[in-house]
Structures are given as structure tokens and as C-alpha cells.
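Below: protein 1.
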Amino acid sequence: MLRIADSHTHIFDEAFDLDGDEMVSRALSRGVEKMLLPNIDLDTLSALWATHSRFPDLTDIAIGIHPTSITSSYKEDVQKIALQLKEGLHGCVAIGEIGLDYYWDKTFYTEQQKALHLQIELALEHCLPIVLHTREAHKEMLQCIASYDETSLKGVFHSFTGTEEELKELLSFERFYIGINGVVTFKKSPLREFIAQIPLERLLVETDAPYLAPTPYRGKRNEPSYIINTLQEIAHAYQKPLEEIAEATYSNYLRLFHA
């Protein structure tokens, strides 16, 4: 039996309201033993807690404000996250999902960067790793993380879909892992040509459910059980057995979030 860790999945999303138990059963039947649930904004906290309470052994949580949820009130929003952390959060193993996203809107270009720094400081204060979202902001993210080079900051660059050169730049941050999801299975994705450059001890696998379903489910709602398709593609890229990739990424998950 495989041991699989889905390092990034939003199963608390309303997309799973009607069949949450069945979805979890399908994941368990495929060998999924751990899932990290990264928060989105203040409004998703209640669903996040409720899902973790239902599946406390299966799920871990990350708490933070997603970059696309950052507004002019970012200071107050991050302060509310900070207060929750001070109260003590059972099952919280990371700060996330945080980052920079300039794909849709650059209205809060500066605020996103300031909010990211505030939340990184929270991570350092509480000795937690971070879960980083980056979209159309590679240069800015490099500058941000490089500024913490002298600290103990660690984490994962979630949902990597960039170029070979961008991968090399991210790998220069030795305390960070790279998260690969279903995009690697897409017909036109170049990822499979170079992801084996990621040292196996720094690789994580994820679904980002309900988004980015792998082939042959592309365009449908994603779910953790589909992670097997992504693992198969990664195993082919590394030219290693599926079992070895699954076990390595499971061990990496524990090392990053439960060390």
C-alpha cells in the first residue's frame, strides 16, 4: 500500500459540500494518509476548522491570507490571523497560503508584498514553515525570500509551473521544497522535461483541489484521490518506481510540516 501526502488541497471548499465523506473515502482508498489544508481568507476559516475537526488525523492546516484576498485592510486581516495563532491552533503546521499574485489584478501590488512580509514574520515568530503562492511575480518573490536568507525561514513553493531557469532559481533556497501538481500531466506542459532536476528530498506532490485536475480529469473538479495520476507522471519523469516517489514525498511532507 502506498503512503501519500497531498501537500496542498482545499477540501474545505464548498465544491465538496455534497460528497465530502465519499471524496475522503476515495482518497484513503488510494493511499492518501496526509493532507495539508491551506487557508484562503478570514471567511474560509470556519470551514477550514470544521473540516479539520472531522478528519483530525488525516488533515493538517495552514493559516494565512491568500494574495488575491489582500486589500487595503491587510494589516487588520493579518492581525486577526496573528491573534488566532496566539490563542493556539491545534493542527496548524504552517503559515499559508500566502504569497504574490499579479495575474488578475495589480491594484494591491505593494500591499501584497507588505502582507507577505508580515506573514513571514509570523512564521518566524511561531517557528512554522510557509506555503507560498506565486503567479506572475517570480522576480518579486525571489527578492522577498532572498531577504530572509540569514533567518531560519523554510517552506514550499506551491504549484510550481514555471520555466527550467525559474526552477533553478527557486532551488537556490535550500530550505524550500517544490510542490508539483496535476499541471505536469497536461499534454503541452514542459514540466516533465526538467522536474527531475528537483532533488528527490525536496519534492512535494499536491492536488490544489478543487482546481487543476490532472489528465484524464482535466476540466473537472479535482480531488485528492487524483493525486495518483500526478505521481505516475512524476515517477516517469524521474524514471523511478511510483512507490519510491510516493514514499519520498510522504517523508518530505513529514520533515517539513512535522519536524
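Below: protein 2.
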Amino acid sequence: MHLERDVVLLITHSGDFFTIDRVAEAVSKRGVQPFRLDTDKFPMTLQLQANLSNYDSNHRLKYGDLSFNTKQVQAVWMRRIWQPDLGKELAPQFQAACSTESLAVLDGFWDSLRGARWVDDLQRISAAENKLRQLRIASEVGLVIPRTLVTNNPQEAREFFHQVKGKMVAKLLRPLSYGMQASSFFMYTSAVKEEDLLDAETLRYCPTVFQEQIPKQQELRAVYVNGNLFVGALDASEYAAYTQDWRRGTKEIFTWQPYQLPDKLIRCLDAFMARFGLVFGAFDFIKTPSGEYVFLEINPTGEWGMLERDLDYPIADAIASALLSTSPKSNTLT
């Protein structure tokens, strides 16, 4: 069946639920057709066709019984891009090449959507995922950041450990899993002990991010959508004794509470988002026992489903409004 009306394209993967469904529902209520594109289903199930010449270009997408021309796409929500699921029949020696080529075709396909409104632009998402750039921009707009060292030199790591008086954590620059529940293959933010650094030669193979350990009263997830903020707070005293990362705790421990950030901090977040040109972002902060707010990171495609689920925040509705905004397309691909 060919879709006749305008489409909002929702880019995700087949294992994504709740958030994608809520945004699709919010888009439908505004009279626009949502179209879910599960990127892991390309090329096995999802079909793309591009015809280009000096005279015309035409791009079509077919998924199941539905198809449309990309000229019909009014807006795009960039949630996730996933590795292709190529099944087990393809010989292992061809898997990597086919996966790489499929992702390259997808990357080229996005160009046919350059006239749509994106939340958010792929290049800006990529720029904002750089954690070191995040820390620099955060400091420049007035946010407090932790003392941070990124190194593959074991001696520098040991020296930094003593500089922060043994209060140090290790983390990754890039996540290894995505979703409301982390996969088993995931490195959480972890406290570092002195004995961990006695034989730290493995840093030669993988540089690590070390930060001073910030005392926690609360951990905050602040979801920013086109100037609107939805903030949830966790009482860190419930889990800080055994983990530095709230994602490691059991669901029973966590009770998300609504939270209001101070106006000064909100202005800093506005400036931060403007610097990156982002409409959406999920910020993580620590509020210390002394009342200081410390910026940890922003995930430009971060999780928010738990806040909508537990606090009844209208985040999906805000995303749909941002997608269908009539304001100038300042965030489109060029």
C-alpha cells in the first residue's frame, strides 16, 4: 500500500518499544502518518530504491505492505541507527562487508530527506556525542564539570588518582548499549581503587576516561525538548553505597521524583543546546550535598521513557510538537 499523505519518519530498530510507540501515537493525533523505520531490518526486510539522473531523482522506501516517496517526509525523528541483521544464512566472511555497505547506503539515503525537519540533524548529533567537546562547551556556558583525565598512560592515571585524593571513577566515551535497560555487554561508571592501578598497562590498548568522584545527594536526568525541560531526580543515598551508576541498581530501589532546576542552570542549558544546534538532549547531573549542580554528560538521543512512564511527563508530545513545528527548519541537513 502506498501512503498518500505526509509522513513523519521514526528511525529506530526492531527491539525499540514504548518511547517509539508514544511518539508515533502523538504524531498520529496531529493528523500526520508516522512511519517506523527499523534500521536493523535493512536490507533483509526493508527495501530502499534510489533513481538518480541529470533530470530527476526519486527515492522510495518499502517496509512490509507500506511504501512512500521520501518527498512525502515532513519530519524525521532520529532515535537509533542499528547494525543490519543479516541472518545466519550469509557466510561469515561476507557479513562485515554487507553490513558496512548497507550502512553506507542508509547514510546516503538520508540525503534524500534533507528537506525534512530533523530532530535532530545527524551531523549535530555526531558532534554532540563527543564527550570531551561536551565538557568544554559545558564549562564555557557556565556549567560545573568534574576534573577529568583521558589517558592511555598508566603513570598519568596513578598521578591523577592521588590528585583527587583517591576519589576517582572510570567511564567510557561511547556507550556500548542503548535502551531503557542496558545489555549485559556494558561498562558502567565504576569507582577506581588504588590496587586497580598497580598493573594498568592495559591502558595501552584502550585509553580510559577518569574523573573525580563527585559526592551525590541526587542524580538528575533532565530531558530538553525544544526549550522545554522535563527533570527526574533519584535519591542517591538509596544506591550510592554500592554503585556509581544508577543503571546498575534494581528497579525496586529507584523512585523517580519530579524536579525543578534553578533558572540560572536552565539558562546554561539553553546556551549549551544553542551551541550544538540541538532540539533534543538528555542531560545527566549530580546535585551534591552542598547544593552544587555538576554536569556529567548529554546524550543527544538519550532515554526518557522512564520519566514519561513514572512521572507522566508529556515528553513524546513535546517531541511530536518539535517535529511538526512550523518554525524555520534551522536544524535540517544541508
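Residues 176-186, 327-334 have pLDDT under 50 and may be disordered.
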